[in-house]
Amino acid sequence: MRQSAISVESLEKFFPPARAGWAALAQPFARPTVCALSGISFEIGHGEAIALIGANGAGKSTLLRILTTLLLPTSGRARIAGFDLVREPAAVRRQLGFHTGSDASFYARMSARENLLFFGALNNLSPAECRRRVNELAELLRLEAWLDRQVRTLSTGLVHRLGLARALLHKPAVLLLDEPTRSLDPVAAAEFRRFLKADILLRGGTTLLFSSHSISEVEQLAGRLLLLDAGRLIAFDAPARVRESTGAASLEEAMEILVRRATEAAA
Amino acid sequence: MKLSATLRKIAALFARDFTIARSYRAAFVLEAFEALFGVASFYYLSRFVESPELSRALPQQGTYFAFALVGFAFFDYLNVALNAFDQNLQEARENGTLESLLVTQTSLPVILTGSALYPFAVLALRTVVYLGWGIAWFGFPVRQANWIGAALVLAVSVLAFAGLGVLSASYTLLFKRGNPAKWIFIGGSMLVSGVMYPLSVLPRGLQLLARLLPVTYSLEGMRAALLGHATTIQLLPQLAALAIFAVVLLPLSFVVFAWALRRTKITGTLTHF
Q1: What is the pLDDT of residue B272?
Q2: Chain A touched by B16 (CB under 8 Å)
Q3: Whose CA is closest to B58, among B220, B231, B230?
Q4: What is the DSSP string of B86-121?
Q5: Using CA atoms, how far apart are residues B68 and B223, in angstroms rounded to an integer?
Q6: Which of A122, A124, A126, A176 to probe the B interface (max B CBs under 10 A)?
Q7: How far is it, in rounded angstroms, from Cα B273 to Cα B267?
Q8: ipTM of the prediction
Q9: Chain B partners of A169 at a C-beta cutoff of 8 Å?
C-alpha cells in the first residue's frame, strides 16, 4: 500500500502560559497547559492540494510548524512521506519545502541568486546541481531578470516568488506554505496563485498544504480544506461538499455555521 | 560523503557571512586603522609606565608594550567566542531567517559552527594587522618567536572558548537576550587572567581563580611562544590545560545546546526574540 504524503493521528499541542518580567525566566521550564491543538487526525494523499483555514489563533501556524519539525507535538503522531516527525526529523526535512509567508526571510544584502545557492547548499545540493535548479526555477517563476539583484531591492511579490523557489530547490515531495499571499496586493496574489496551480500542482505532482484567510484562494487551489477552530479540526472535505453539507450559499457562510456548531457543541 | 557535505555547508555559511560583510566595503579599511590606533595607544602607554622594575616583574621580562599587545590581541578570541554563536542566533531570529535555516537539511550545530567561522577568520586577520602594526612601527619583538607553538596555543584556545560560546548560545536560545553569565565571565576573565598585568600582582585567591579560566593558560602560552621564545615542548603545560578545557566544554556545550533546542521546540519560543 502507498504511504500517505501527510498522515496525522490524534495530534495535540500544549504551550506553557506566557509569562512576563522575572517570571519569564521560568518560562522554558514551565508545564505546557495552554491547548493549541487537540485531537487532530487526517491523511493527505500524494499530489493533493489542501487548504488549512480557520480564524486567527485557530492553530494553523502551530500545525504547520509541527509538520516542519520547528515545534514538537505534546502527544500524537505525524508522518511526512512515511517518516515520523519526532523520531526522523532529518528524513522529514528531506521531503519538505516550506515557505513561511514572511517577506523577511532572506539575507537582504545578498542577491537572489546568492540566497538560493546558499539555501541549496544547506539542502545538500551539489554546486552544479544547485546552479541548474536555480536557473530552472528562475525561468519557471519568471525571476531571471532579478536573480542578480540584492533581495532588499525586490518587491514583496518577487520575494514571495523567491520564497517559493527556495522551497522547491531540492524537489520536495510535500510543499507547506504559511499564508503565502498574506502581504501581496490582489494582482500579485492572483499571479502567485496562477504559478502554484499551473506550474507546481498541475505540472509537478507535489503535495501542497497551505494556510490561508482568502476564500477565493481556497476555492481556486484546494481539492479539500481543513477547517480548524480553537485547535480542533471541525471539517475536512472538498470546499463544494462543505458548502452543500451546511446548506450555505457560500464557503464563508459554511465556515461560520460550522464554527458556530462546534462552539455550541463544546459549550 | 557525509563529511564532504558538512564541509560544503560550512563553506556556504562562511561565504554567506563574507558576502554580507563585503557589501559594507568601508568597514574593512576602517578596522585596519582602528587597529593602528589601538596599537599606538598601547605603545605610548607603555612608554609612560616603562621602567626596569616593571620589565623585571613581567614574566618574559620584555617591554610592557609587547606584554599588553599580546594580552589585548588574544583576549579578543574569548570575546568573539562568547559573542559569535549567540549573536548569530539572535540575528537569524531578528532578520527572520532562523525558520528558513532550521527547515533545511542542516543541523543547528553545523549552522552554528559554520556561522562562527567568519568572525574567527576576521579576528585572525585583525590579530595579524595588530601584530603587523606593532612590528612595523613600534618595535614589537618577534625575532625568536615560536610561531608554530603560538598557532597551536591559539587553535586549542579557540576550541576551549568555542565550548563556552555554545553554552552562551544555549542561554540565548532559552532566555532570548541579556546573558549575565557571559558578561560576568568576560569581566572576571579581564580582571584575573592577566590581560593587562601579570598574575603575580593579584592576591592569592584571585590567582587561584585565574587557574580555573582557560584564557589564563591561553595568554600565558601566547606570551611564552611569542615573547619568551619557549619551545613547543615548553608550552605543553598550557596546551594540556587548554585541551582539558576543550575536551570537557565542547561535548558538554553541545549536550546542553541540544537540550535547550528541544525545550524551545516544546515551549514554542524558538523564533521569539
Answers
A1: 64
A2: yes
A3: B220
A4: HHHHHHHHHTT-HHHHHTSSS-HHHHHHHHHHHHHH
A5: 10
A6: A122
A7: 13
A8: 0.88
A9: none
